[in-house]
Design a protein that fits this description.
This protein has 777 residues and is α+β, with helices and mostly antiparallel strands. It is built from 25 helices and 11 strands.
Length: 777
């Protein structure tokens, strides 16, 4: 059958080339349209209860992750020259396109009771133009600011002389490419201020993290793609000593890259941290296709001396092998499409489709182009007699035939140690997991965690279960919120929460002349006055002061049914976070009567935890799917349970060893490391397929002779392709993202081990299971 297909491919080669070129042009057009994704977390399905609650929160209270914080640690901020320049910086930041508001020390307000109306009004602490204040005015304003408990831990940490500026980025801008310009505008102004006064400026917040990570994705996509092509070109040139072979192989993978970007646009996907890897993976996985085709072509030409017949043999022998190799590799990636996580689903779909497309690209392009090129010269086939590789294969042959018991024993001991290491594996992820610890994004985040207990948003919504529910039992509700807030503030990883309770404390302080001792929850008598002013009774008074109205509406929904408690916290990881949240939920359950109130925990921190757990569970399931589907493919290909066992065992062993090494090395199970196993299984099984297909094609010989001949005929191409794959994945070790770096070295390690098990343990297993039987076609 495959020989007939081979002759058809060669007969219609010109037509097939034209079709391929037209398809490439079509995909190139769509590839030019693909865009970067700016979504921070697309791990949770849209029907997940946590996701639904998060979206409901956004509708009622707005975005929780649109705050960029700027910090500076200095005891000179209130010197006139620095302070006035800091005020000008605040005004300049408000003018940056995409910035909605800026809250900082220079723009802080105080609530002062109007002597005429006896109502509080918002007054700028440092006057209407802080950039023109005198040193005396600055000192006076500083005294007022430090006497307002509302701002403690919010705008400053007096113990460490650290001062905070909060920049609100427009939601529409934050979810588009325009935020790159906005963030550059913000950081440019702040850096200039720091340079003028020799101050170390710090940044953090989700807008900055998302923007910087998106920029890194774009940069690494380009460099990894370029690097992989250069490395593959060098390896091909060293192997085959032929520019035409190198260029033909590069043409295959470059067309594959174009198809991968085009597929993203056709499916409506954007470039994310995961699917940005697909083009590079296409290069790394596509080159072995070329090596195996070229290796078989050169071997057949050396044996027959006829170019056309060599091409027929190449297509006939390698067609089915390459098809199933690409199929199993596509399964290794494609199983991610079976998860309900959007980011994994997109990666699985794009990678799976394009790895299969690689087969058709190489199956059409390589034979067609080779048919027009001159026959290979002796120097192009010299690698077939590489004496160094031949010596390695001879050594492997000796181990297989004469040290079978030692191989079984060593394998058993290695597995025992690896299983012990697996028991040490821990599953834990962080929001900035992928950043190296010396990256400024990471060090600045730790700066804010040290001085302000973090910047990651956690939102608590108390629902009174009915409209205007805040009118009834307001004092008791405020007391419960205050108790919960104090409990949260006492936690080492959480900042003092902001809520309606804190806001009303601020108002009460102003009502009693600004004395900080009156910063407390209003009593019933206070509330009778404050409720009318703050529109809790619906009399429309709050509109008289726009500043107070904005503050009030940031804590209460429009129906006056729900009240928000907003907390900033440290990035404490997915192991610690459930414990902390569970503790807070227990405290909230004790404070709020469930018959009258419903307490919902949401925000980026909660959705991250849910997403991380969801991804890891999905990845574990995908490994089982990959194993089952690959086993089905192998059973269909070889129609033998004995060969099925021989094919799976040598590829499960490397996964166990890699997991054991992770456990002993302290590498955590997180999305970026769990993903390695199904990918490595899908790729490593290729080696097994090529070995076993060649073994089955050796007809009429006893298993011992068939194994020896298979090692010597396929060993060289297996070693070459393993080197290519390992070199390709090692490239990821230069990534700035910890997850991609882990994917690089863990996959490389797994492939090296898989090469050894397939060239050493697999032959031993074959000899053990087929003892006394002849190899059958």
């Amino acid at each position: 059958m495959w020989e007939s297909i081979a002759r058809l491919v060669l007969k219609f080669r010109l037509f097939l080339l034209v079709v391929l070129l037209l398809a490439t042009g079509f995909m190139a057009y769509h590839a030019s349209r693909v865009k970067l994704s700016y979504d921070f977390n697309t791990a949770i399905p849209t029907d997940n209860p946590k996701y639904v609650a998060y979206q409901e929160f956004h509708k009622k209270f707005g975005e929780d992750g649109n705050v960029l914080v700027v910090g500076v640690q200095t005891d000179k901020l209130f010197q006139q020259d620095i302070f006035t320049d800091y005020a000008r910086l605040t005004d300049a930041l408000k003018g940056v396109p995409g910035v909605d508001d800026v809250l900082g020390v220079t723009g802080a307000i105080n609530l002062v009771k109007d002597t005429a109306t006896q109502k509080p009004k918002a007054v700028p602490i440092f006057g209407t133009d802080p950039a023109k204040t005198t040193q005396m005015q600055i000192d006076s304003g500083k005294a007022v600011l430090l006497g307002l408990p509302f701002y403690q831990g919010l705008l400053y940490n007096l113990q460490t002389n650290t001062w905070l500026m909060v920049v609100h980025v427009n939601k529409a801008v934050m979810n588009s490419a325009r935020r790159i310009v906005t963030v550059k505008g913000i950081t440019g102004l702040v850096d200039s201020f720091g340079a003028r006064h020799d101050l170390d400026m710090r940044y953090s917040g989700l807008p900055l993290i998302r923007t910087k990570m998106a920029a890194k994705v774009a940069s690494e996509t380009r460099w990894f793609l370029l690097g992989s092509i250069c490395i593959m070109a060098l390896i091909l040139l060293l192997f085959f000593r032929s520019f035409s072979t190198m260029l033909l192989s590069l043409a295959v993978v470059i067309i594959g890259v174009v198809f991968s970007f085009g597929t993203m646009d056709l499916l409506g996907y954007k470039i994310t941290l995961l699917n940005a890897l697909t083009p590079t993976l296409v290069v790394v996985i596509g080159i072995p296709n070329c090596i195996y085709f070229m290796n078989k072509y050169h071997t057949a030409y050396r044996d027959t001396g006829d170019k056309h017949e060599a091409l027929v043999v190449m297509i006939g022998r390698m067609g089915i092998v390459t098809l199933f190799c690409n199929l199993t590799a596509a399964i290794g990636f494609g199983v991610f499409a079976l998860t309900r996580s959007a980011i994994l689903n997109e990666f699985g779909v794009v990678a799976g489709i394009n790895i299969m497309l690689l087969f058709f690209i190489s199956f059409i392009l390589i034979p067609a182009v080779l048919s027009y090129l001159p026959a290979p010269k002796p120097k192009h086939m010299r690698y077939l007699q590489n004496r160094y590789l031949a010596a390695i294969l001879k050594r492997l042959e000796g181990w297989t035939l004469h040290h079978q018991r030692a191989i079984y024993l060593l394998t058993g001991l290695t597995l025992a140690v690896s299983i012990a290491g697996m028991l040490r594996l821990k599953s834990e992820g962080f929001i900035v997991d992928d950043l190296p610890h010396n990256d400024k994004l990471y060090t600045d985040l730790k700066f804010f965690e040290k001085n302000f207990k973090g910047v990651m948003p956690l939102e608590i919504v108390v629902d009174t279960k009915r409209k205007k529910g805040l009118r009834a039992g307001t004092i008791k509700l405020l007391d419960s919120i205050d108790v919960l807030s104090k409990y949260i503030a006492a936690q080492p990883e959480m900042a003092r929460p902001l809520s309606l309770a804190e806001f009303l404390k601020f108002v009460r302080q102003s009502y009693y002349g600004g004395d900080s001792s009156n910063y407390d929850i209003p009593n019933q008598a206070d509330l009778a006055f404050l409720a009318s002013y703050l529109n809790l009774e619906g009399k429309g008074q709050a509109g008289k002061d726009n500043t107070l109205t904005r503050l009030l509406h940031s804590f209460i929904d429009s129906n006056q049914q729900e009240v928000r408690i907003s907390v900033n916290m440290a990035d404490i990881g997915s192991r610690r976070l459930p414990i902390v949240l569970g503790d807070l939920q227990q405290k909230a359950a004790a404070l709020f009567d469930s018959s009258r109130y419903r307490v919902e925990f949401t925000g980026t921190s909660v959705t991250y935890l849910e997403g991380s757990s969801f991804i890891i569970k999905g990845l574990k399931d995908s490994i089982l799917w990959a194993f089952a589907l690959i086993a089905a493919c192998m059973l269909f290909l070889f129609r033998s349970l004995r060969i099925l066992i021989c094919s799976l065992v040598p590829n499960v062993i490397p996964l166990i060893i890699t997991a054991g090494i992770m456990g002993w090395a302290g590498v955590r199970l997180r999305p970026s490391t769990v993903i390695v196993f199904s990918i490595a299984l899908g790729i490593a099984i290729d080696i097994t397929i090529r070995f076993l297909v060649n073994y089955k094609q050796i007809v009429g010989k006893d298993p011992r002779q068939a194994v020896i001949e298979t090692i010597n005929t396929t060993g060289i191409s297996i070693l070459y392709t393993s080197l290519v794959l390992t070199a390709g994945f090692v490239l990821f070790c230069f990534s700035d993202f910890g997850g991609i770096l882990a994917l690089g070295w863990l996959t490389s390690l797994t492939l090296v081990i898989a090469t050894i098990t397939n060239l050493v343990f697999l032959p031993v297993l074959l000899l053990g299971l087929t003892k006394g039987k002849a190899a059958k076609p």
